[in-house]
Design goal:
By secondary structure, this protein is an alpha+beta fold. Among the domains are: about 110 residues; about 80 residues, Alpha-Beta Plaits, CATH 3.30.70. Helix content is about 55%, strand content about 20%. The chain contains nine helices and eight strands. Strands 4-3-2-1-5 form a five-stranded antiparallel β-sheet. It has a three-stranded antiparallel β-sheet with strand order 6-8-7, with helices on one face.
């Protein structure tokens, strides 16, 4: 951790440190100039705030890297990562606000109006709160997500019928990366006010189904054996469970459902596609009669009945 911390501090703190030292030198050599001194004071405040943010960020990132390297629970690592990210954003925003306030207080005119500003702060706060209800709702929703552990960075979710992975969480919005590399940006208040699917909650292992319509004469027992053989050749199958059963019937086909498992959503998708493809190919090659078709021939009569279109011979 010490080596990583030194590397992060050197890389991130070097730019604000150079700006800070430069402002000190300029102010020292141009102390007789009022405007140069005032400008360098503002630069000093901004550079100090920038340096403080970078130091905190480097220390927290080094601590998180050490924690992630020794943790075995992936869900806990994602939870800590989400909380740390949001806490750093809140801390950075607070430092920026304090730095801006310090810059304003360097002007004598701002000091004289400070009392009147404090007196009207209550009214302005009420007006600003009413005007920014949605923003404040997202802000508190972001804090609720960070400490409520409802959704984390890296979770697999389904929102608005879109499947994807949570890529970024801020205090106001959340980014979901879909399977086709699109990014969906949503307000974080959505995840505290509407239902959604979190496939990573309580574990990333998943169970999926593959449905096939086949003819009534399909060899279901042989299909079970073939499913077992297919799964043994798939490295994405985690071996937890599998099965095949007839779940429904129609006048022309029967509905066969295969149940498979995998360690996560990506592997489950691969297993489902492979099982569907190989079962259909096996039926087409070995048992073509089992594929669904529309019957155009006359129905078989029951035993002892006269076939349609034929006349009974006289006795």
């Amino acid at each position: 951790m010490e080596h990583l911390l030194r590397s992060l501090l050197l890389r991130r703190c070097l730019p604000p440190t150079l700006v800070l030292l430069g402002a000190v030198l300029v102010k020292a050599f141009h102390s007789e100039s009022y405007w140069v001194g005032r400008a360098m004071t503002l630069v000093l405040i901004g550079a100090a705030a920038w340096l403080f943010i970078q130091v905190v960020d480097a220390v927290v990132e080094a601590a998180y890297a050490r924690f992630a390297a020794g943790a075995e629970d992936e869900a806990r690592v994602r939870r800590v990562r989400t909380q740390v990210t949001l806490i750093l954003r809140v801390a950075a925003a607070a430092v920026v606000v304090v730095a801006l306030a310090a810059m304003l207080l360097t002007f004598p005119a701002m000091r004289t109006v400070g009392a009147s500003m404090l007196a009207s702060a209550g009214v302005l706060g009420i007006v600003a709160g009413i005007a920014a209800q949605s923003t404040l709702a997202n802000l508190f929703a972001g804090l609720q997500i960070a400490f409520g552990d409802t959704v984390r960075i890296g979770d697999t979710v389904v929102v608005d019928r879109e499947w994807g992975t949570v890529e970024e969480i801020t205090l106001t919005f959340l980014v979901v990366r879909t399977w086709d590399e699109r990014r969906i940006t949503m307000p974080v208040s959505y995840f505290t006010s509407k239902p959604y699917e979190n496939w990573s909650r309580g574990g990333v292992e998943m169970t999926g189904t593959v449905f096939l319509h086949v003819d009534h004469r399909a060899p279901v027992a042989l299909m079970r054996e073939r499913l077992d053989a297919i799964l043994k050749d798939l490295p994405e199958w985690d071996g937890r469970s599998s099965g095949l059963a007839v779940t429904d019937t129609t006048p022309h086909t029967v509905l066969v459902r295969a149940v498979v498992t995998a360690k996560d959503a990506d592997d489950l998708w691969t297993v489902r596609c492979a099982v569907r493809e190989r079962l259909i190919a096996w039926l087409a090659a070995e048992h073509p009669y089992a594929l669904p078709r529309i019957a155009t021939a006359a129905a078989e009569p029951p035993p002892g009945a006269q076939a349609p279109g034929t006349a009974r011979l006289p006795e």
